[in-house]
Amino acid sequence: xxxxxxxxxxxxxxxxxxxxxxxxxxxxxxxxxxxxxxxxxxxxxxxxxxxxxxxxxxxxxxxxxxxxxxxxxxxxxxxxxxxxxxxxxxxxxxxxxxxxxxxxxxxxxxxxxxxxxxxxxxxxxxxxxxxxxxxxxxxxxxxxxxxxxxxxxxxxxxxxxxxxxxxxxxxxxxxxxxxxxxxxxxxxxxxxxxxxxxxxxxxxxxxxxxxxxxxxxxxxxxxxxxxxx
Length: 229
Fold this sequence. Notes:
By secondary structure, the protein is an all-alpha fold. The chain has a single domain (about 20-210), classed as TorD-like (Orthogonal Bundle). It has helices spanning about 20-35, 40-50, 60-75, 75-90, 100, 105-120, 135-145, 150-155, 160-170, 175-185, 190-205, 210-215. α1 runs antiparallel to α7 (about 135-145), α3 runs antiparallel to α10 and α9 (about 160-170) runs antiparallel to α10. The protein is globular and about 40 Å long. It starts with 20 loop residues before the first helix and ends in a 12-residue tail after the last helix.
């Protein structure tokens, strides 16, 4: 049976200490900036993240440095092409988190509105064109939020984050280190999350899927994928 992405191995044991909240917010801001579509200000974004690397903890700093080095070597146009091919043309790498919880169903619209309401109640005003469940938007929110709301939002959508991460790793995408840096700010997934993740990658997002054929035709290999760090 075809899978959404490759079945992962059981993750490693949880780390003894979680990342300091201030460091986590800084890492999430860096990932948010670099996970956006690379526009004319991409070089400035790379420089800003590079300047912040020395103050960020491992393994996030090395992951971010790896992406910055690749992006500089590839150049803006190549990164723009890679971005579109990765996030706009592959559903398994979609950055809209509600896709993984609701698929392409009518219920997804309500879920997107719920994201918007959560951000609004936390005082986060949308000034971007993207939908509120767009991962870079959520990470920008997480970079400034100190109420725990953004943390809960990320943890409740962990399965989708792990699907994106697994898909990028399996495809050897230059964007994979950004998801590695993000996951370094989160605790190891609990058993419920692991079960949900396995169910999602084996069955795909819930009901009314659009484009199942292209997923089934090009499944990711299973040998290199894992939820463990």
